[in-house]
Amino acid sequence: MSEIDEALGLFGGRAARLVSERENAVYAADLPGGRAAVRLHRPGYQTPEAIRSELDWMRALASAGVAVPAPLAGPVVLSTGRVATAVAWMEGAPLGEGGEPLAGDPVTQQARFRAVGRAVADLHNASDGLDLGAGFTRHAWNIDGLLGAAPLWGRFWESPALDAEERALVDAARAKAHGMLGAFATSGGDYGLIHADVLRENVLMRADAAMLIDFDDAGWGFRLYDLATFMTQNEDEPNAEALRDAALQGYREARPLSTEDEDLLPMFVMLRRFASMGWIVPRAAPGDPKVRAYAAKAVTAARAFMANA
Ligand SMILES: N[C@@H](CCO)C(=O)O
């Protein structure tokens, strides 16, 4: 029996259709509780306890009125060892896709970015008010998780696509960022539960409202990381600066963000580019141009960081 058939059997669901296989395999299906996204989780990434915690968090956010997918079933461990869950299907159109020009005219785009900034702030605000219990466990995008000896998405500085000069640059930027992040954390930099993968693919738009989906990478982290991740797909947009400003405006409508913190955004963009440079390595064949493309973006960010910081 296939994994999805086993999961459907356990959830009492039917009519599954594969809709995405980016990290988890996600199927649209009908469950007794309604239309669902049934997820077969990527083996070896999150533990069943962490996935249960993700669902507890989603349930608490949904109860608090935040537009996130409410849990419907699971987690269950399938006979293959893979974990399956189901969350409510969210109607809406993805904001866009990385590497593709953003749809819509600039006014529409900026209105959407403002809505996303607002949704991220709402998530941070609501998460700060939750008591998720002693068993709650998620990984942390903290200094170690971003820059330590074993970062959550791998030892990015070992990407085979870096030449010796670039590796030295990345090492220097990593050391410098480590110091700056330490100072930021010590001075009370905003830290708590974050989505950690605010990419266009993970934002659904319904009318004028933005909704975040796919909390698989979510955990503890610096709030600026969410805003920075959202900035990493805009470098080819002619109005990239206006898009950033719109997202920050939306964020500030619901949650404070000082100009000192805003000044750290380029560093956080670099940290995300470092993480992604590590993320792609086990997911692509050696020599795949994507490995170089991720490394090149990280190097560009590191050069700017070392020149300006
Ligand atoms: N592909 C992502 C990483 C995983 O979502 C990125 O570009 O940062």
UniProtKB/TrEMBL annotation:
Q: What is the official name of this protein in its record? A: Homoserine kinase
Q: Where is the signal peptide?
A: none
Q: Where is the Aminoglycoside phosphotransferase domain?
A: 18-257
Keyword check for Transferase, yes or no. Answer: yes
A Pfam family cross-referenced in the UniProt record is APH
Return one GO MF term: kinase activity
InterPro entries hit by this protein: Aminoglycoside_PTrfase, Kinase-like_dom_sf, Pseudomonas-type_ThrB
UniProt keyword terms in alphabetical order:
Kinase, Transferase
Family membership, please give it. Answer: Belongs to the pseudomonas-type ThrB family.
